[in-house]
Amino acid sequence: MDSPPPPDVEVYDHFFRGRHALIEALTTDLDEFLEICDPEKECLCLSADGNKMSWDLTSPPPHLPPPDLHGPVPGVFFKREDMPLSEWLLKIALQCDTWLNSVASHRGAHLDTSAR
């Protein structure tokens, strides 16, 4: 039986897999991502599941995350008609990076002294 990875490795792995999924959404899966984007929906979040290494575009979660953890940033729909696609994708990527760093920081802050 394999032992679970140390908590610090788990935090890094979760961040890395989530980042990979978000990059995939905005590059390899761009056509699928754009097809799912529905301008009729006012507020969607691009988020990643670091456990499954997959991305999802959904409405904001109905439950609030813990106060010290930010949820995925709603707002995939900036005024797209007013900006080039590359600029729009850059804004989404910045939001996603902020969210991923927030999750990693939150998980890292809850490591005990020996795990840090």
TrEMBL record:
Gene Ontology biological process terms in this record: chromatin organization; regulation of DNA-templated transcription
Molecular function (Gene Ontology), one example: transcription cis-regulatory region binding
Domain of life where this protein originates: Eukaryota
A Pfam match: Alfin
Complex and partners: Interacts with H3K4me3 and to a lesser extent with H3K4me2.
Biological role: Histone-binding component that specifically recognizes H3 tails trimethylated on 'Lys-4' (H3K4me3), which mark transcription start sites of virtually all active genes.
Entry text on domains: The PHD-type zinc finger mediates the binding to H3K4me3.
Protein family: Belongs to the Alfin family.
Protein name: PHD finger protein ALFIN-LIKE
Organism: Stephania cephalantha
